[in-house]
Structure to design on (292 residues):
């Protein structure tokens, strides 16, 4: 199968879930010229998504080369929305799922999608902690199911990790790799299932080590970040990365950890950050302050 043949098989894309990353996936796909249907559970969620899409258009205009002059806003016209799941997937060539990181929610969602989507549709999960094999059978078509995992701020951190299961059809895998290229992502081909894919397998140990140094009083946030930046040449330290990710995901991961230090870190994130609205870059304050 050639790249041209591969690319032509995906025209209509449905994104399930319009949270922070789901909205970025939907907008980036529309920006690349695809028609996108954004699905969420109710009209209130879709109204919030509309605001996210408009904010992303402004961000692209300011930060993405070539996006000014109407290209960024034109992408908004290629996004439609629906709170009817069957309707949202009725004409999909590719369905990308970015619903909450809960196994039962994902299984239930994919059972409904599998019953409603056309036979040609490819199914991809953006799950960051669950393996696709954990719920591939719920789709009813495991040969057409795999993981397609994006990083936050995908217009800058433009990786798309493609990870199949033992059942994934190689042509389906190749189609998704090409789709990643078509939406201006750099496909990261993961050869076998791996919790955390490549990126988080490298990133999470760094973040865990940084949080342990801080919780145990070894060094303060600024010192830890400065040490990492100076010692490696990285543009950001681990606590700056926490601010980009936001506090909710690190909290959920740390809370579920068997490590008592990580559970203590989760408690601090909850009481000193999440409960006080210090969610990171998105809220204007996390470990650091932004704007103003």
């Amino acid at each position: 199968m050639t790249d041209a043949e591969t690319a032509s098989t995906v025209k209509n894309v449905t994104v399930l879930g319009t949270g922070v990353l789901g909205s970025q996936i939907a907008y980036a796909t529309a920006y690349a010229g695809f028609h996108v249907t954004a699905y969420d559970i109710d009209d209130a969620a879709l109204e919030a998504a509309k605001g996210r899409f408009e904010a992303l258009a402004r961000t692209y205009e300011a930060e993405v080369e070539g996006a000014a002059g109407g290209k960024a806003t034109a992408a908004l016209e290629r996004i439609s929305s629906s709170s009817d799941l069957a309707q949202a997937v009725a004409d999909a060539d590719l369905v990308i799922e970015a619903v909450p990181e809960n196994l039962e929610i994902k299984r239930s969602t994919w059972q409904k999608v599998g019953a409603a989507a056309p036979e040609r549709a490819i199914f991809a999960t953006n799950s960051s902690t669950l393996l696709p094999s954990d719920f591939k059978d719920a789709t009813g078509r495991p040969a057409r199911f795999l993981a397609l995992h994006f990083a936050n701020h995908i217009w800058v951190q433009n990786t798309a990790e493609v990870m199949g299961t033992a059942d994934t059809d190689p042509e389906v895998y190749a189609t998704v790799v090409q789709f990643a290229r078509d939406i201006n992502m750099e496909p990261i081909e993961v050869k076998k299932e791996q919790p955390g894919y490549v990126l988080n397998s490298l990133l999470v140990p760094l973040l865990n080590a940084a949080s342990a140094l801080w919780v145990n009083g070894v060094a303060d946030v600024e010192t830890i970040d400065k040490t990492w930046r100076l010692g490696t040449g990285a543009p950001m330290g681990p606590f700056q990365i926490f601010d980009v990710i936001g506090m909710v995901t690190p909290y959920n991961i740390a809370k579920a950890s068997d490590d008592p230090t990580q559970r203590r870190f989760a408690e601090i994130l909850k009481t000193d950050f999440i409960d006080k609205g210090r969610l990171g870059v998105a809220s204007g304050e996390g470990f650091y302050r932004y704007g103003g």
